[in-house]
Amino acid sequence: MSLLLTYSNYTILLGDFNANHIDWGCSTTNPKGAQLLKWINDNNLIIHNTNMSTSLRSSNTIDLIISNQQRDSIDCTLLSYTCSDHFPIFSEFSNILFQCKYEISIPKTYWNVFQAVLNTIHEHIDELYTNIHDEFSIFLQFQNLLHALKSRVTVWSIQNQLQSTLPPFIRILLKYKHYLQNRYRKTKLENDSLDLRLWSKINKQEILNYKARQWTSFLSKLASSNPKTFCNHVKLLNKKPQKGFSGITDDDNMNIYKTPASILSYFQQHFENRFASPNLDISNKTDIDANDLWQRLITVKNDNSIQEHIKYSDLTFTIQDLHSIIKSLANK
User: pTM of this prediction?
Assistant: First the structure.
């Protein structure tokens, strides 16, 4: 958070910090609270909503409004409960200028790179922490490592507006479901529980119907006679998958093959078994005739000799018939 203080002369931090300290109205002090207080004092910051119970689940002040402005420049008022397990805080700012930019930064984290780096350095991390006996220090250092690694593998892009993947009517349904969840969490009444279960089923069905309509629309556009429409939607099928290929299982789901050599060996064995010649029944006349015909065909000296193949075939056609058929297909 220290980096945020360098962006502007006017900095306001708001959030659910889950940091307890008696200095801002909590009954106890936890390690996060002690660390946060030290950071606030080191950076000359002020908490503007002290002694303000902001959660329904406890009497502590865990939602904080922190800034580098004077205490009287921000006036905070706790509002009544509305559809959440936290009380909303109305904050009024004075003598602070806001620069509004209609741009949104969208992060994209490459988790496959994140995982690969951790797999590479995990042995070194274990050796590094063997001499540290303070579990909380180990936790803080490892937390900082994960945060730094995530920052390095995250790319930010600027967009003019954030487009939701869900239509407005589904967002309204989900918002009301959230309201019912928090109401039941507060009241614990059976009627509220029934309303929540009923509304959850309605939401689930509406989302399934929406996805089905989207898929039907996508297929209809793929079948469009307009080449431009077709090409634009085919591009969606060529998107790179989010998850990498991990392995395959055999027919009995007993073994997992992950390396290229083992996968290739399994495929070779699979297709050899699949396309192997069938077992012949010596007592079956059809099997005997088929095997006899096959042996005569494979013993022909010239494999390209059509005449020899025709001689042992039950199909009645001549070389001239083949030429006529090929000639009739030439224009097509």
Answer: 0.34
